[in-house]
Amino acid sequence: MESKDGAEHVTTSSGHSGVTTSPGVQSSENPPIAPFYGSFLALAGDDGVVDAWDLQKALKKAFSQEFGDDEGISIDVCKSFVALYDEDQTGRLGFEEFKGVWAMVKQWKDVFTKYDEEKSGSLTAVELREALKSIGFSVSDKTFGSLALRFGNKKGDISFDAFVACVAKITGLTESSFHEKMSRGEPYNVDDFLAVGMRS
């Protein structure tokens, strides 16, 4: 929607910041620890943390066969996931952060499946808009048009990888300190904007 000063903003229903939850994800619904923890340790190794490449391996194994996508979720999307939960900006996730990402992606996968009415493995523009609303993102026609062009394929359809990339981008921007400053009408600088844009 548009604010009084004419700036366009995304309206969300999640109303949170930090890594405890994500839009559409309830913090009380974390995946069970065992054998989940064992899977994490297999990825993490001796240092007890995972990076975006480790996360991509886990997500590819979990979701690529289901969606018929040999490539799985792209490394760029996995980097966005890590950025959402990586509070100390090390580029790596501990177990609790990893659980948060996993729960988030699982929720988004369920949303994608629900709104893929024809079970084609992709969303139309209409389905995308409804899926975003169900997660808690209501955007203007102008913003939605930009999202559809940015994340749609040549036919305008949205793959699962593109869908999670889209939601991760919106989440990263709307939950950032940059967005909080905008919402409060506080000044921000170009560096704030670039830092958020590069990480989300």
Q: What this model shows, in words?
A:
The chain has a single domain, classed as Recoverin, domain 1. Strands 1-3 form a two-stranded antiparallel ribbon. Strands 2-4 form a two-stranded antiparallel sheet. By secondary structure, the chain is mainly alpha-helical. Helix 2 (52-67) packs across helix 3 (75-85) and helix 3 runs parallel beside helix 7 (160-174). It has helices at residues 36-44, 52-67, 75-85, 95-115, 125-135, 141-151, 160-174, 177-184, 190-199; strands at residues 11-12, 122-123, 137-138, 158-159. It starts with 10 loop residues before the first strand and ends with a helix. The radius of gyration is 17 Å and the shape is globular. Helix content is 56%, strand content 4%.
